Amino acid sequence: MNKTLVTYSLIFLILISLFGFNFFLSLIGNLLLLVFLIPLLIFLILLISFNSLKSKVNTCNQCGTISLGINNTCINCGADLEDINPKSSENLQKPSETTIEVKAEEIK
Ligand SMILES: [Zn+2]
Question: For the chain, what is the radius of gyration of the CA atoms?
Answer without folding.
Answer: 27
